[in-house]
Amino acid sequence: MSHTHLVLLGTSLLGLAAGVVGVFAVLRRQALLGDVLAHATMPGLALAFLIAHSKSLEVLLVGAGLACGAAGGMLWILGRYTRLKADVRLGVVLGVFFGAGMAVLGQAQDVPSGGQAGLESYFFGKPAGMLERDLLWLSGLATLCVLAVVLLYKEFQLIAFDNEFAQAQGWPTGRLDLLLLSLVVLVVVIGLPIVGVVMVSALLILPAAAARFWTNRLGVMLMLAGGIGIGMGMIGTMVSAEWSYLPAGPTIMLTGAAFFAFSLLCAPKRGLVVRWLRRQGAKQLSPTEV
Prior knowledge:
The chain is mostly helical and about 290 residues long.
């Protein structure tokens, strides 16, 4: 398998995992969770580089994963043991970790062995520069996320739509919340080298938001979001491969924006164009025909 095919495989599986996991974040009104967790990886990336003096994928992703997990744990604790609203919790965690990240990145710039230069790919994504073993490893983690959603579909469905009922029935809602949060963390971490810190949150939101226009059924929405995520990864990567001056991360996001715009306009029930045509047709009817 060529390197280009491996990059396509990696971005497609990442899009699938992000689309499927992002559905539950959107349904639970936690769409900005991915953005908070993505920015929370910044101190982990910089600290891993400063401690290990290495820019290898494994070292930096371990640091990013630990920082992202700490941010997720802080969100979970604030949600479980305080009365702070969701937007306040997200703002607190974002401010703390983003500020820490900027401070540590300032230290990384002063390191003689290359400074911050090698970390730039994690801000904007650079899948073409990854090794084959890195892409296979990230693809395996993305597959793990999808399998977890498939195996726990009923449980996640229950806490997404009626968490209080699930808690009253004795379901371990706290552990399920933590597991779902862990899947979001995992998608964010594996998405860093492909689309970068800045755009990984959009990879979680766009497929789910686009799929929401087409259906009210969770199963169908999951399949649509997964398909849109795959389309984003494949089309964006192929466009970037054809025109090398276009980075893969932005082209993947622009592809997702195109999917979202098409859904917004043309979805059969919620599309703006369809709704406008219906209103125009209703206005043309005479009072007796109505």
